[in-house]
């Protein structure tokens, strides 16, 4: 990894993703987290403050970028919930099958290189009946916006460390999970190419 990935990008992501507009989504998505939780693409730990401490036993967090560590550790230190932070690739998890009650992903499926593999891993490590809670940005339902999303994605991937604007998140999750409750909407005050959100729950 280079200086951009290790130093600049983690600080940039921390600043952008700390925006108050994301907080309400985090709170809503995480309200359903229970038991033993796995969060993939933990980043700088911005979700930690929003986990319901009364119903969560512990959180295992993974991220592929070691540069996120320093900022994440500050939030882990003040978390009332026990956190097991690991540097791992979400495409290839070492955890046993049927380990977690909840898996969480917030604005991460856009960046994982092999999306289908990561979703298969999420499914595998969830206990039967366990929930995958997510909020992601991705492919719009408007063809003219899709065109621009496809055009801009190569640039976005370059500056956003692999972030795609044009992934059909619903299609990818529904290929693996039969039970899926999902809503799609444009986030207010956000450019449409990056602001088409998929928020929901998939059950194993
Ligand atoms: C846009 S950031 C979102 C961070 C955090 N989830 C949040 O809501 O603030 C995407 C994160 O996914 C991580 N990531 C990308 N590819 C990954 C992979 N294959 N496995 C695990 N984490 C990955 C990145 O390092 C980054 O921290």
Can I get a quick summary?
It contains 6 helices and 7 strands; from the N terminus they run ααββαββαβααββ. A 7-stranded mixed beta sheet has the order 3-2-1-4-5-7-6. 34% of the residues lie in helices and 27% in strands.
Brief descriptors of the model:
seven-stranded mixed sheet, 204 residues, alpha/beta, binds S-adenosylmethionine
Topology at a glance:
Elements: H1 3-17, H2 20-30, E1 35-40, E2 56-63, H3 69-77, E3 82-87, E4 100-106, H4 115-125, E5 126-137, H5 143-159, H6 169-174, E6 179-186, E7 196-203
Parallel strand pairs: 1-2, 1-4, 2-3, 4-5
Antiparallel strand pairs: 5-7, 6-7
This protein binds S-adenosylmethionine.
S-adenosylmethionine (SAM) is lined by residues 13, 17, 40-41, 43, 46-47, 62-65, 68, 89-91, 106-108, 111-113.
Number of strand segments:
7
**What is the CATH architecture annotation?**
3-Layer(aba) Sandwich
Helix percentage: 25-40%
Ends apart, CA distance between termini: 35 Å
User: What's the CATH topology name?
Assistant: Rossmann fold
- Would you identify the regions where 5 or more consecutive residues have pLDDT less than 50? none
**Count of separate DSSP helical elements:** 6
- Radius of gyration, taken over Cα atoms and rounded to an integer in Å: 16 Å
CATH class term = Alpha Beta
Q: Strand order, main sheet: write it out.
A: 3-2-1-4-5-7-6
Beta fraction of the residues?
A: 25-35%
Give the CATH superfamily: Vaccinia Virus protein VP39
What structural category do the secondary elements indicate? alpha/beta
Bound molecules: S-adenosylmethionine
Shape: globular
Could you give the order of the helices and strands? HHEEHEEHEHHEE
**Average pLDDT figure:** 97
Number of domains: 1
Sketch the major β-sheet.
Answer: 7 strands, mixed
């Amino acid at each position: 990894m280079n200086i951009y990935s290790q130093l600049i990008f983690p600080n940039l992501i921390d600043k952008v993703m700390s925006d108050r507009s994301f907080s309400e989504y985090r709170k809503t998505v995480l309200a359903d987290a229970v038991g033993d939780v796995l969060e993939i693409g933990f980043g700088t730990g911005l979700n930690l403050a929003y986990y319901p401490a009364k119903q969560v036993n512990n959180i295992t967090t993974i991220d592929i970028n070691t540069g996120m560590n320093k900022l994440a550790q500050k939030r882990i230190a003040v978390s009332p919930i026990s956190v097991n932070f690991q540097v791992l690739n979400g495409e290839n998890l070492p955890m046993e099958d049927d380990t977690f009650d909840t898996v969480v992903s917030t604005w991460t499926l856009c960046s994982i290189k092999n999306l289908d593999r990561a979703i298969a891993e999420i499914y595998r490590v969830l206990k039967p009946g366990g929930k995958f809670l997510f909020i992601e940005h991705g492919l719009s339902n408007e063809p003219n916006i899709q065109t621009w999303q496809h055009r801009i994605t190569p640039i976005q991937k370059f500056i956003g460390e692999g972030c795609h604007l044009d992934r059909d998140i619903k299609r990818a999750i529904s290929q693996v999970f039969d039970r899926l409750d999902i809503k799609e909407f444009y986030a207010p005050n956000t450019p449409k190419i990056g602001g088409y959100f998929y928020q929901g729950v998939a059950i194993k």
